[in-house]
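Morning. Coffee machine broken again, so started the prediction first thing and wrote up yesterday's gels while waiting. Chain of 283 residues, entered below exactly as on the submission form.
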Amino acid sequence: MITDITRSNIQDVQKILIEGSQDRNVIIFMYDSDEPKSEGLKAKLSLLAGNDSATSLVNVNLRETPELAQMLPVRDLPSLMVIRSGKLLGSLEGPGAYEPDEFVKKFLPKEDELLHSEARKLLEEGNLEGALDRVDRALASSGKDPVQYRLTRADVLIKLNRLDEAEGILQAMTIEDQLDGGDYYSTLQSTLSLARQALADSPVEELKKRLEQEPDNVELIIELAAQYNSLNQKTDALDLLLRVLRKDVSHQDAKKTYLDILETMGSSPVVSAYRRKLYTLMY
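Came back before lunch.
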């Protein structure tokens, strides 16, 4: 995102810089429009940072808004500053700012950070399989096993009712990890406890026992699959339905339920894999 501070929005500059930096890095470019090199540097910064959805670029023409030089700690022009949560992370001023590549790249998000950000967005949207795919890729890419990534993975697994896996992640966290996780860690512990209670109160266990006694009861399989789906255990539901479809791919109730579940799962490699399994049976 790119914002130009002008006379028309100068009254919002604190909001743009302080509130806008709460969840992302903000690169502030301060320049004098009478300096011939400024426009070229502005274009270069736009290419470096402007297309990154996790970073904001704010251009401040001090020729047009000189009063901002009093608000921002400018000593020389052009000036580059990077802030997050209103705090200065780094700066580059004077002639050196005309070669900003290495400076800017230090503050652009890495691949794992982008993947984790995407996982969080998909989690909020309810695309749990997509979120799990992204957070797994983020963990593989980071090489550091960050606490926030592990908490996000536990959150997704709880919502998928893969409770033992989620509990394993939370139990493996050290005291330091728990402190780093803060309220998020505590919330997930409570959410896990509630999810276990909800699972205990559901008819799933009883249906599973009945299915053990009647493994070929198609109506029972579809009913259990529907219960799994209601608990967000969608892959378990799909696996059950495949048992029916492998014997009778034309079974309308099983096929419709299978496709309906896939439609609720968004897009991810897991969803694509389950679509291929059905198409293989059909064709």
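The two ends are 46 Å apart (CA to CA). Going to sketch it on the whiteboard this afternoon.
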